[in-house]
Amino acid sequence: MARAKATTDHETIRRWAESRGGHPAIVKGTGNGEPPILRIDFPGYSGEDTLEEISWNEFFDYFEKANLAFLYQDEPNSRFFKLVDRETVSGRGRRRQTRRSSARQRGRQARARGRASGSGRATSGARKTAAQGRQGKSRGRKPAGQGRSARGQGRGGRKKRQAR
């Protein structure tokens, strides 16, 4: 599978699109006071009713105002492209942090600070030892023998039939 390249060079984008029969367009009905949604229309595809052709100068004006980058495959038969925020491609080659991974990293750092300071506080990731669990000190759990067990009851609280 071919990898996508990224560019902001207007001439590269124009040559790529025109070599595949594409022309610049906007989605009809967008842009009322805001930059319109940009597309490259390829004849014979589904854009005829929803896209409005514009000039390359208009396309690149909107492209720059929206701070976009052009992701594309440079394969001869590929029409794959995507217009994305330049910030998403500025870090290509490095692992981009997502909200989840950055939150995970902050949690690790907080736990490490807790261990380093010797505060003695349990962190959110700390687990109770098996001995504490057997003493009935774990929250929300019944002492051993009072809860459902795989041997005594099945789903729905019915007792399993025992073979005699």
A few lines on this structure:
The chain is α+β, with helices and mostly antiparallel strands and 164 residues long. The protein has a domain at 5-90.
Q: Which series of helices and strands comes N to C?
A: EHEEEHEEHHH
Overall outline? extended
Approximate strand percentage: 15-25%
The overall average pLDDT, rounded, is 74
Q: Give the count of helical stretches.
A: 5
- Which structural class matches the secondary elements? alpha+beta
Number of strands: 6
Main β-sheet description: 3 strands, antiparallel
Helical residues, percent: 25-40%
Measured distance between first and last alpha carbons: 63 Å
Low-confidence stretches: 93-98, 119-133
Q: What Rg do the Cα atoms give? A: 30 Å
Strand order of the largest sheet: 1-5-6
Task: Give an overview in words.
This protein has 164 residues and is an alpha+beta fold. It has a domain at 5-90. The chain is 30% helix and 15% strand. The protein has five helices and six strands, in the order E-H-E-E-E-H-E-E-H-H-H. It has helices spanning 10-19, 56-65, 86-90, 99-117, 130-134; strands at residues 5-7, 23-27, 38-41, 51-53, 68-72, 81-85. The strands form two sheets. It has a three-stranded antiparallel β-sheet with strand order 1-5-6. The longest helix has 19 residues, at 99-117. The protein is extended, with a radius of gyration of 30 Å. The protein starts with a strand and ends in a 30-residue tail after the last helix.
